[in-house]
């Protein structure tokens, strides 16, 4: 907050994080359809939840002793979300609804995505890890890296209202080799992000406080193939990549 004479200006930034999925006991606001019905789509792998993240900043200005003088202006806004937008989710629901009616819930056999979730969450929730292979197996597009620190945590238990695995979030900080950092910079289209990437609290100390962070829709699509939500931020000057993914799928091994 700043003051110039009797005029005050306050800059407020709101950070939002929302996991979009089906919740047991809940229902769609518009149609009233129970989440337990559509939750079967996620179990069968025909739909995926996604993590929506964003920030918005407002400048609030007022004059001392004049409450009616208060004004608010948009300073900035930056949405960071999974590759599954709401429209894409609804398209999957519409396309699969008729098949669900005929086939039911399926056999419940484990899928490769289920196995990948289990492997990503096989340590204590939130514990920091430094083993490379789980990260390399799921994000081979990152290429060669010198070190990694990462963690996984469970986002709710059976939140989709149907039998199946919980959603697992995998977050980490990767130190790239100089050659790989340059290769990524040239291979994909990147654009600047206005601030340091958000990470889970116990990883925050591993992310440089200052830097020139960039992200790329092209790179994210190459990694996820649109099958799960993820975000990747890279500081090419320092050779640091920060990732966060929900239910990442293992590609190698």
List the helices and strands and how they pair.
Blueprint: E1 2-4, E2 7-20, H1 35-43, E3 50-63, E4 66-81, H2 86-103, H3 112-120, H4 133-138, E5 145-154, E6 168-176, H5 178-187, E7 191-192, E8 213-215, H6 217-224, E9 230-235, E10 240-246
Antiparallel strand pairs: 1-2, 2-3, 3-4, 5-6, 6-10, 7-8, 8-9, 9-10
Order of helices and strands: EEHEEHHHEEHEEHEE
Please report the distance between the alpha carbons of the first and last residues: 53 Å
Look at the helices and sheets and give the structural class: alpha+beta
Helical residues, percent: 10-25%
Task: Give the tally of β-strands.
Answer: 10
**How is the largest sheet built, in terms of strand order?**
5-6-10-9-8-7
Characterize the largest beta sheet: strand count, sense, and whether it forms a barrel.
Answer: 6 strands, antiparallel
pLDDT below 50 for ≥5 consecutive residues: which ranges? 77-115, 157-164
> Any idea what the shape is?
globular
* Tally of alpha and pi helices: 6
Average pLDDT across residues? 75
Radius of gyration: 21 Å
Strand share of the residues?
25-35%
Number of domains: 1
Task: Summarize the structure in words.
- The chain has 253 residues and is of the alpha+beta class.
- The chain has one domain.
- It has helices at residues 35-43, 86-103, 112-120, 133-138, 178-187, 217-224, and strands spanning 2-4, 7-20, 50-63, 66-81, 145-154, 168-176, 191-192, 213-215, 230-235, 240-246.
- The strands form two sheets. A six-stranded antiparallel β-sheet has the order 5-6-10-9-8-7. Strands 1-2-3-4 form a four-stranded antiparallel β-sheet, with no helix packed on it.
- The N and C termini lie far apart (53 Å).
- Residues 77-115 and 157-164 have low confidence and may be disordered.
């Amino acid at each position: 907050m700043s003051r110039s004479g009797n005029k005050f200006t306050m800059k407020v930034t709101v950070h939002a994080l929302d996991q979009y999925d089906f919740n047991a006991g809940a229902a769609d606001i518009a149609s009233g359809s129970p989440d337990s019905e559509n939750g079967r789509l996620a179990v069968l792998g025909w739909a995926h939840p996604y993590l929506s993240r964003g920030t918005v900043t407002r400048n609030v200005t007022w004059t001392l002793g004049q409450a009616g003088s208060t004004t608010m202006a948009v300073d900035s806004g930056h949405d960071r979300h999974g590759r599954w937008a709401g429209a894409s989710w609804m398209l999957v629901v519409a396309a699969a609804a008729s098949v669900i009616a005929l086939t039911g819930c399926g056999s419940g056999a484990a899928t490769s995505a289920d196995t990948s979730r289990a492997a990503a969450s096989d340590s204590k929730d939130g514990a920091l890890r430094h083993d490379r292979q789980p990260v390399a197996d799921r994000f081979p597009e990152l290429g060669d890296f010198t070190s990694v620190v990462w963690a996984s945590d469970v986002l709710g238990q059976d939140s989709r209202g149907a039998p199946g695995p919980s959603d697992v979030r995998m977050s980490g900080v990767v130190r790239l080799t100089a050659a790989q950092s340059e290769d990524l910079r040239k291979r994909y289209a990147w654009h600047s992000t206005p601030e340091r990437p958000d990470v889970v609290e116990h990883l925050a100390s591993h992310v440089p406080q200052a830097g020139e962070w960039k992200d790329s829709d092209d790179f994210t699509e190459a990694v996820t193939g649109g099958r799960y939500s993820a975000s990747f931020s890279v500081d090419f000057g320092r050779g640091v990549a920060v990732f966060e993914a929900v239910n990442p799928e293992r590609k190698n091994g």
